[in-house]
C-alpha cells in the first residue's frame, strides 16, 4: 500500500513539476492547425490537446493533465475488460499490475498518439467481447466505431480488426461470425470512422500512409543485438518482474498447447490474439528494425489480463517495490537532473529557451524565427512564442507536419531571420556549427549571436546556438524537400 501511495503522489506531482517534452509541443502544434489527419499520425491526440488547452489555457501542466485524464480512462476500461476474464479479486490484481508500470507514467505525462490509442483499444475489446461472447448485436456497431477511433489515434489500431479476424478464424464456436451481417456492420462503421484519415491521405498523395509503411521499411538493417535492447526497454516500461512473468507463462502455455492449439480456451484465445501478434511480431523484427519503446504498449492490455490469472500476490508485491524505486529515481532525475541526457527528448531546458527566445524576438521584432534540428526545437518555440516559428522546410528539407500547414515561404523572401538550434551535448558544438553551411545558400549573410545557455542548480544543462541570417532566399520548387 505504501508503494502504491508513493507512486500515485509522484505521478500527480509530475504533472506540475515536469517540463514540456518535445512530443507535447509537437502534438500541441497539431492541435493549433486542426485537420482531418496529419503527416506523422492520425488526429486524435491533436484534438485531445486542443480541447484541454482551449478550456484551461496554454500551459505545460494542462497538456500533462490531458494525458493523465485520458490515461485514467484507459485504467477504467482495462479494469472493466479484465472482469470479463477474471474474478473481481483477480481483476483488481491485474489493475494493480498495469498501474505499477512505468508505461502508465509515460502515458499520463507525455503526449503521444498512444495516449488515446490505449483508451480506445480497451473500449474496442470491451465492445467486441460483448458482441462475440454475449451476442449483443448493437455491440458490433460500437466495436466498429471504437476500433475506428483507435485507428484515428495511431495506425497501430489496425491490429484490432486483424486480431478480430484471427480470433474468429481460430475459435470454432465463434467462426460463424466471419460470414455474419454483424461483422460486416462493424466493418462499415469502422470504415466510416476512419474516413477522415483516408480523405486526408487521398488529398495529400497518401503522404502519411507512405511515410508509415514504405518509409519505415526503407530503414531496415541487420543489427542482431538490438533484440536485447528491445528486451531492456520493455523491461523498463513494464518493470522486469512483470515482463519476466509474461515470458515465463508464455513458455508454460507453449509447452501445454503446442500440439493441442485448438484446445486453448476461447477466452484465453481472445486475450492472446490481441497480445501475441504485436508482442512477438515486434520482437521478431527487432534485429532488423529498431522497435520503439511504445510500439508494444497496446499488446499489454490483454497480456496483463492473461498473466494475472496465475501471477501470485508475492510477485505483485515485488513488482510494486521495484516500481517505487524506479519512480523515485525518476523523481530525482526530474528535480536534480544528475544524469545528463544527450538528446532533445528531455524536459530539461526548454522553458529557459522559450524565455530567451522571447527576448530575442523583442530585440528583432521583424525577423522570422526557425530551427532545423528535426521538429523538436521548432515545436517548442511554437509553444512558447506568439506567432509562427518555422522549421527545416525553410532550407529545403522535409519538415514533417510543418510541410502541411499551408506555409507560403515566398512571403518571407528578403526578410531577415533568427536561426536557433539545439545542442544535444553542451560541451560539443562542432557538428552543430557545421550545420551553418546548410544555411548559406538561402541567406546573403550570417552573423553568430550569443548562444542561449540554460542552467539548473548552477550547472549548464542546455545550450542553443543562435544566428542572425540576412536576406532570405526561399528554396526553389525543385529544391523543396530534396534532402
UniProtKB/TrEMBL annotation:
Show the stretches that span the lipid bilayer.
Answer: 61-82, 94-119, 139-170, 182-202, 227-249, 269-289, 295-313, 320-339
The answer to whether the entry has keyword Iron is no
Membrane topology summary: Multi-pass membrane protein
Pfam families attached to this UniProt entry? PMT_2
Write the protein's name.
Glycosyltransferase family 39 protein
Write out the GO biological process terms. lipopolysaccharide biosynthetic process
Q: Which InterPro entries match?
A: LipidA_mod_glycosyltrf_83 (IPR050297), RgtA/B/C-like (IPR038731)
**In which domain of life is the source organism classified?**
Bacteria
Where's it mainly located? Answer: membrane
Q: Which UniProt keywords apply?
A: Cell membrane, Glycosyltransferase, Membrane, Transferase, Transmembrane, Transmembrane helix
Q: Where is the Glycosyltransferase RgtA/B/C/D-like domain?
A: 40-200
Subcellular location(s) of the protein? Cell membrane
Q: One MF term in GO for this entry?
A: pentosyltransferase activity
Gene Ontology cellular-component terms for this entry are:
plasma membrane
What species is this protein from? Chitinophaga oryzae
